Amino acid sequence: MIEAAVFYVFGAVLLASGLLVVTSRNPVHSALFLVLAFFTAAGIWLLLRAEFLAIALVVVYVGAVMVLFLFVVMMLDINLERIREGFWRNLPLALVVGGIMVAEMVFILWGRVWGVSAQKPLPPGYSNTRELGRVLYTDYGLAFEIAAVILLVAIIAAISLTLRRRKDSRSQDPAEQVRARRSERVRLVSMPVELDK
What we know:
The chain is an all-alpha fold. 74% of the residues lie in helices and 0% in strands. The model has no long low-confidence stretch (mean pLDDT 78).
């Protein structure tokens, strides 16, 4: 009973934070709400006794991907007004994609509740981490490698976006500073001495 109540609380927080990720006007606030959503999803994984997935979600997404996302958001000059211009134009497509995702989730839950019999009890010494590793690196080895390449491309793209030249950036050239001569920087002016009367 307590576990079900905690699950519903976590689910409500996850839904609210996911909604705030999409509706927040500030991209940094959206990133922080996404961190909250990741932590809440990790809590739900813990309730489902999938400890490895919960820790991996926190370490990989919160510890690495979100730090990279916040770095890119802080470094880029994002014109928020231009981004908001296409909101209403893209709303029908977003509603269609969101409706498809909701239909998929309802279909999965419908099959889980009414279409599938209860699972057999797990044998003693069963490790979900070992089973996840076995399935991931044998049955889905190619998909895992493709996902790794896509993440590498995303990291390279984020770095290349932050390395562009900005108009308001100032740089320092130590070689030019060392080459400076006194005659170029200092001008001696002789002035007559004025005595106080």
